[in-house]
# Entry
Amino acid sequence: MRLLRPLFAAALSAAFALSVSAAESATPAGNWQWTATTPQGPFEVTARFDYKDGALTGSVTVPGNEAPLSAASYKDGVIAFTVIREMHGMQFEIRYSGKLEGDTITGTIDRPSPGGDREQIEWKASRAK
# Structure
């Protein structure tokens, strides 16, 4: 009987750890990465998403520039948020939307194009391990 208690406690701890891990991967909470293609060439982007009490917060970082999420939401597997960037004294709004499936978010980015219009490009982010 004494041997069963530690085994039961270990099994219970393992089950709890797995359920917490599964719950985290069922939300966008965590660190993410993807490659952005721009007129200046490709570069790596990272993001940190926090999801608590139904609220999505976090930030997106490109080399040398971190910006907070605004208008962020996550519901029924769909994530959406906006990032405001500044360049040469002007602000640019970049809108992200996508579907979370496991450790991948696939969707679109709506951003300003070099000609002044807006363009939509594909977006595929991977959860950083």
About this structure: The mean pLDDT is 84. DSSP finds one helix and eight strands in the chain. The chain has one domain: 28-127. The beta strands are 30-38, 41-52, 55-62, 65-75, 78-87, 90-101, 104-112, 118-127.
